[in-house]
Specification:
Layout: H1 13-22, H2 36-49, E1 53-57, H3 60-71, E2 77-81, H4 86-95, E3 102-106, H5 111-117, E4 123-127, H6 139-148, E5 153-156, H7 161-164, E6 174-178, E7 192-196, H8 198-211, H9 217-227, H10 230-249, E8 254-258, H11 268-274, E9 282-287, H12 290-300, E10 305-306, E11 316-319, H13 330-335, E12 342-346, H14 352-364
Parallel strand pairs: 2-3, 2-4, 4-5, 5-6, 10-11
Antiparallel strand pairs: 1-7, 6-7, 8-9, 9-12, 11-12
Helix pairs in contact: 2-9, 3-8, 10-14, 12-14
């Protein structure tokens, strides 16, 4: 049910005062603190992830920022995988240093480097399937490394969704989603959510209440609608993405394809272990000819839409260097494995034959 109220009435002033002091847990007072529809969404995601609870936010970046500000203070340090969403990268590399919070960057597979940097850090951060190069980390190993220092492993599970992976089962302490993507699934809402134990959630929620990135009740209601079809959409998207990745791997106008479920992919063994052999609904590939050729290719598409975001009903494509990862310099792009011709394709629910026809025609007739 959609509860759109921003504030709630009390017939008893003492009850009103008590609820206002408690903020949550003693009746609804103000929707920036708690709302019945938002609570229902949080409970649904917590159930999917197997966590004790969840806290919702107005966007994925609102959720990630709140985690960082809740767990870190001025003078603290974060250790993070360099393979991250562009805005997460800029948050850690540009925004948080203004608050005195710095980051050490490592490749996902550089376990020795990560171990050496963790002493004295506040947390370790990665993505279940990295954006945009769709690499899969060894979550259990990263959790082990973080655990050696008594630190939380924070995992962005947006690309995988809890249908493919539940990072808490592999040792993570905190899971974050952009609900805009697979959880919502229809390209019509913004939202984020954090799953963790009660102690961490209390700190994250306090930041959210003070900074105000609250999830709107209507967006929570839309996300609940999306969750109802989440398993079906993820399965369809994974099946189509694998078929498309296999076809592009053999195309002469494609230099490389990145998709964890391909036998040739370096992440394949980890995808078998963490994702049940699935690769997710997003794949990457390098268009031969670099940036200009990739732009011409995207301009020639007719069914697939050049647009940001992912995990929805319609297939979307982006040229990472000029769209989702503009925050990275040329050297940083190369370091993250992103070429000038790299495209990220989020596979929707269209007929995979139609998607392949569109891709093939655009590759061969730019």
């Amino acid at each position: 049910m959609l509860h759109s109220s921003s504030t709630y009435a009390f017939s008893d002033s003492a009850e009103f005062a008590a609820a206002s002091r408690a903020k949550v847990g003693s009746g609804y007072v103000y929707s920036r603190w708690a709302n019945p529809t938002v609570d229902a969404f949080e409970a649904a995601v917590a159930g999917l992830e197997g966590s004790n609870g969840a806290e919702a936010f107005s966007s994925g970046m609102g959720a990630i920022s709140s985690i960082m500000l809740a767990l870190c203070s001025s003078g603290d340090r974060v250790v993070a995988a360099k393979q991250l969403y562009g805005n997460t990268y800029s948050l850690l590399s540009e925004r948080l240093p203004r608050y005195g919070i710095t980051t050490n960057w490592f490749d996902l597979v550089d376990h020795a480097g990560i171990r050496s940097a963790l002493p004295g850090a506040k947390l370790l951060y990665c993505e279940t399937i990295s954006n945009p190069r769709v690499q899969v980390p060894d979550l259990a190993k990263l959790a082990e490394l973080a655990g050696e220092q008594g630190l939380p492993l924070v995992v962005d599970n947006t690309f995988a969704s809890p249908i493919l992976c539940r990072p808490l089962e592999h040792g993570a302490s905190v899971v974050v989603h952009s609900a805009t993507k697979f959880l919502g699934g229809h390209h019509d809402l913004l939202g984020g959510v954090v799953c963790a134990d009660a102690e961490i959630l209390e700190a994250v929620a306090a930041v959210g209440r003070d900074f105000g990135p609250s999830l709107a009740p209507f967006n929570a209601w839309l996300a609940l609608r999306g969750i109802a079809t989440l398993p079906l959409r993820v399965e369809r998207s994974c099946d189509s993405a694998l078929r498309i990745a296999g076809a592009l791997e053999d195309h002469e106008e494609v230099d490389a394809v990145y998709y964890p479920a391909l036998a040739s992919d370096p992440s394949n063994a980890l995808a078998d272990r963490l994702l049940g052999g699935r690769g997710g609904g997003t794949l990457g590939f390098d268009v031969a000819g670099g940036r200009d050729r990739a732009a011409a290719f995207q301009d020639s598409l007719r069914l697939i839409t050049p647009a940001s975001s992912l995990g929805g009903t319609h297939s979307l494509i982006v040229h990472a260097a000029s769209a989702t990862h503009t925050q990275l310099s040329a050297d940083e792009l190369r370091s993250a494995g992103i070429s000038e011709g790299f495209c990220r394709l989020s596979v929707g629910l269209e007929d995979p034959d139609d998607l392949l026809d569109d891709l093939t025609a655009a590759l061969e007739n730019p």
